[in-house]
Design brief:
Elements: E1 5-10, E2 24-25, E3 28-29, H1 30-38, E4 47-51, H2 54-63, E5 69-73, H3 81-92, E6 101-104, H4 114-126, E7 132-138, H5 142-146, E8 152-155, E9 161-165, E10 182-191, H6 192-200, H7 205-210, H8 214-219, E11 224-228, H9 240-253
Parallel strand pairs: 1-4, 1-6, 4-5, 7-11
Antiparallel strand pairs: 2-3, 6-10, 7-10, 8-9, 8-10
Length: 254
């Protein structure tokens, strides 16, 4: 699957941290770090950044050549990353009559591991009937297991998602420890044509209850493949406090 495209939704007007894609992180902006990591994966070039803000566009265009990364300007009316991705697919006129794979990498993940993107693409290669796939990682902390801000994934032996929840699942009734709890990672691969269909669907009751957009796909009967990965740096930039945590992490790792 050499033509898989990475599209990075990046908006400036975050309610919790306005301008976070342009926040400086040890000499690089957050969005530049995400793009550089994505360029190390086996997805095709250029990487696309979908944004509604000219400041983000200027940063990307100043840091990367057009063969490395390009900007797709999208509407300010996009409510979710999925909406922005769908608009970018239409703007780029990606082919819908073939199995065109698009990877949604979040613009606030400066510690993106390119091998994790590859794991996602490998799963889409191996299971050619999948229309969508995502990632999960072993959840080792009971604090995170009980935290509603940590999304849990329950996965079948065929690497298919059974459910995603903010609740602590699966419940180990007999305390056997035979099932490893998993934390969901918000990176997705889609068939482009399915993503457009998903974006057009209304939010499902489960999605609205849990506030998890991927439940819309499960409600629609779509199988979601899940690749299990390890060595995840658990720092996404959602708040100024996260940015400081990221700086401390980089300084400690230097």
């Amino acid at each position: 699957m050499n033509d898989a495209k990475i599209i990075i939704p990046a908006r400036y007007a975050s309610s919790r941290f306005p301008g976070k894609p342009l926040a400086e992180l040890e000499g690089q902006t957050v969005i530049a770090r995400v793009v550089r990591a994505a360029l190390q994966s086996r997805a095709s070039r250029p990487i696309y950044v979908a944004t509604d803000d000219s400041r983000i566009a200027t940063e990307v265009e100043s840091q990367f050549s057009p063969t490395e990364a390009q900007v797709v300007m999208t509407s300010e009316k996009c409510h979710t990353g999925t909406d922005r991705l769908a608009e970018a697919i239409q703007t780029l006129a990606l082919p819908l009559g073939v199995r065109q794979i698009v990877v949604n990498v979040q613009g606030d993940e400066p510690f993106l591991d390119p091998t994790h993107v590859n794991a996602l693409l490998n799963l889409m290669d191996e299971q050619s009937d999948l229309q969508m796939a995502t990632l999960a990682t072993p959840l080792l902390s009971e604090t995170q297991f009980l935290d509603p801000n940590t999304v849990k994934a329950v996965v079948s032996q065929r690497q298919r998602a059974l459910y995603f929840s903010r609740a602590p699942i699966p419940f180990d009734r007999e305390k056997t420890g035979t099932v490893q709890p998993l934390r969901h990672l918000g990176i997705y691969a889609y068939e482009a044509r399915w993503l457009l269909q998903m974006a057009a669907l209304p939010p499902s009751p489960l999605e609205e209850s849990e506030k998890l957009e991927q439940l819309r796909a499960l409600d629609a009967g779509i199988a979601i493949g899940v690749a299990i990965v390890e060595n995840v740096v658990p720092i996404a930039i959602d708040t100024p406090e996260d940015l400081e945590r990221a700086r401390l992490y980089l300084r400690a790792a230097a």
